[in-house]
Amino acid sequence: MSGVLLADRYLLPMTEADLDEVAAVEKLAYEFPWSRGNFQDSLRNGYFGVCLRHVTGTLIGYCVLMPVVDEMHLLNLCVAPQAQHAGAGLTLLREAVRIARAEKLDGILLEVRPSNPRAIQLYERFGFSAIGRRKNYYPARHRSREDAIVMRLSFPKEGAHGAG
To answer: Where is the active site (predicted)?
Structure first.
């Protein structure tokens, strides 16, 4: 994937050079952030990392995707707090779908906190459906752990007919 210009922002592959900035945004956005090392390990293991930047170069958001057998697992999607509610999450989801389709995978799987209704709403509006729950998946402040809602977006099979 090379840089893709989208009006006032562009998508680029995440590289080692992005990781300090990515980790800084992660700390601003999440109570239990990934470490810089988590991102570094993901890139070293061949996962797909995508950065969304404003034309000024400011990091708006990013996502990390891991191919697993026949589907893509969306491990992390984050939009910088100051850039939320402006379509960045949708842009990153579209790029995740583009990558998964380019890899000829059947869909995308993700986990989301039940306590994150804005993310759940974004995923549902995009076409993801809840397919299960992972008990005690996430660390939580006021309880020992929080469950995860497992969501999936399936891609139509080649040659399938239907509204689309």
So the answer is: 111 (proton acceptor), 123 (proton donor)
